[in-house]
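Homework-ish question, so no full write-ups if that breaks the rules, but can someone show me the predicted structure for this set?
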Amino acid sequence: MAIIVQKFGGTSVGNVERIRNTVNRIVEEKEKGNQIVVVVSAMGKTTDQLVSLANELSSYPSKREMDMLLSTGEQVTISLVAMALAEKGYDAISFTGWQAGILTEDVHSNARILEIHTEKIVENLNQNKIVIVAGFQGMTENNEITTLGRGGSDTTAVALAAALHAEKCMIYTDVTGVFTSDPRYIPNARKLQAVSYDEMLELANLGAGVLHARAVEFAKNYAVPLIVCSSLEREEGTIIEEEVAVEKNLIVRGVAFEDSIARVTIFGLENGFQQLSSVFTTLANRHIDVDIIIQNLTEKGNTYLSFSIKKDDLKETIDILETNQEALGIDHFESETGLAKVSIIGSGMVSNPGVAAKMFEVLSQNEIAIKMISTSEIKVSTVVDEEQMVKAAQLLHEAFELEAVEQNI
Amino acid sequence: MAIIVQKFGGTSVGNVERIRNTVNRIVEEKEKGNQIVVVVSAMGKTTDQLVSLANELSSYPSKREMDMLLSTGEQVTISLVAMALAEKGYDAISFTGWQAGILTEDVHSNARILEIHTEKIVENLNQNKIVIVAGFQGMTENNEITTLGRGGSDTTAVALAAALHAEKCMIYTDVTGVFTSDPRYIPNARKLQAVSYDEMLELANLGAGVLHARAVEFAKNYAVPLIVCSSLEREEGTIIEEEVAVEKNLIVRGVAFEDSIARVTIFGLENGFQQLSSVFTTLANRHIDVDIIIQNLTEKGNTYLSFSIKKDDLKETIDILETNQEALGIDHFESETGLAKVSIIGSGMVSNPGVAAKMFEVLSQNEIAIKMISTSEIKVSTVVDEEQMVKAAQLLHEAFELEAVEQNI
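A: Not a homework solution, just the prediction itself:
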């Protein structure tokens, strides 16, 4: 019997009605003769409510206690889903992250999964039970509850699919698949039938919002086929796998964008590379994700260095830089918020020069100032003012004729 | 350094303001130079909200999944209390039941604590941390989450106090101590300075509502001094310990009452004792607490048997009796709800005959029909109509001059 992992996000379990609908989707797959593992997130706004409670009591709550607090959200959902399945006559059992054997590194709020001891899950699947696992959470070797950070439930689902050698991992969400851009902002955005892991990685990394990068990486490494589909509508979703037939003329396959970006610029790094690496090692040790990095030599011969981070990490980044200012040889630094990242993605880009140039041209013609640029083989990213983010994305979606393809095929 | 266990119920952590107040009470004891272990319940109405969610999705939710669901309530509170303590500059760490090493028997919704592995708590106390433990919950040998049933947080607190050889266990609640009766219904009820474990056991068993019987039993067995006091007011509480000086003339020390009682009467148990014991064994195996039992011989020579249970257990009791009707040799049975239990309690009762007679006289003079009677060395219980419960309690409180004593001392 094939094992299928189904993951339902917060919207799909947001209230009693939605949970019943989710249960129907689970039953459908079970009735096809599959063994089913379900991964669920916290109900709708639960996490936000818990966060605001914490903020009322503490100006800077410890990450350990936040993990303790937030991990309750998924635990509520798993039990409710198991009850609703039992009510329909299906044998179901719920497991928290630690009960499901999900072992993580010893980092709070953003832990990586180290291994999964699947014995308990397998034992229950073999008793014909539907197994419901709390997403987003795990346990350290030392019995500490950890959470996996943003998109953590996706990661749980993919990691379980890999560990259980599942046939596929289905990610149910509030959209019908992966789009050329976010349909909430780009009305002409078109659903893609298939994307490669690498394209999805860039889309995920760049804030496409459908799937978290870490989950896609995991799927790529273990060759787990992912299907992104709607939990409400019966449309075919988007499949994410290794080899994807490139649709004709589709050099750029998507436009992704992400707000709440901050830029930090450091001046006076006298010894260049050595200090450069110290800065990023120091930030990495504190689990701050640095995205775009730009380094340059000013007229005075001093190095200056700019990098972008998530706005939420800015406070901690400033703390770290201030504490280590002398040790890192930093003269002074400044920061800027209110920024956004807009990117174009496509596997075909590498063999088609001029794509980046066209992007810059479109933006500058429309008086959108580009503050940072970063390129890879399959994407070009720019940092722009947050206010211009959606406009920039719309212009690029149009310029690269992303909506037109659907009509041609 | 002395270890003190402080337990705060749902009301004491019902909102952000209450949690701050609770944190002040914790800090007070810490500042006296004690090592502090705090046990907390779920916030105010959390448990009720979770129960109603479960009931929307399932007509008869499994006890295992209810434990999974409800145990999140305390987990939320422990993290918030730890954060609030950190905000005031105190080092605090929260533990769920399983993290705190609370091992229970393999029974859902009403498990008993088997043992407590205190290493982790002791280690953290020795690092000068305030340890916050989730009440009401534990874990089986098989990593299943269990809850301890009604009043479970009291049990957790007392069990921890015993295991840690704490100096005392302070139970903070919304009343200022143990009263001669429930002050919400009996305006003249008087706070007792001290009661013995046995008296408290009867008061708890009989629905005094302040402390759960299992917690008192635990305290008695391990000689843990309990102090019941208010989390809001600064009044002296009531101490519960082995030897209590009997106040002058105070034969009856309290009137307790409890509504939502059901009575089941079984007819036609042909073989008497053998079947009698089968009936109760069967119910006990399903963890149904049978309280008062009355057995009699009818004119036809058949045995009939009445017993009282909590109304909430009636549905399951009827299920069990129906399923086992033939095996138990039951001819037929009936049930009655809308009943209540009213009791008088006092250690002095054993050496003062006539107390029970006086009780029956007071009730019958006021036309309150007594449906069942049960007596022990330190209490007399009667089952009456629910509607007459408060009136009966008021009459008895007056008849035994419970409010008068305060003025005489």
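Now go work out the reasoning yourself. Hint: Chain B touches chain A at residues 16, 19-20, 50, 53-54, 56-59, 61-62, 64-66, 68-69, 71-72, 75-76, 78-80, 82-84, 86-87, 93-94, 96, 98-99, 120, 143-145 (CB under 8 Å).
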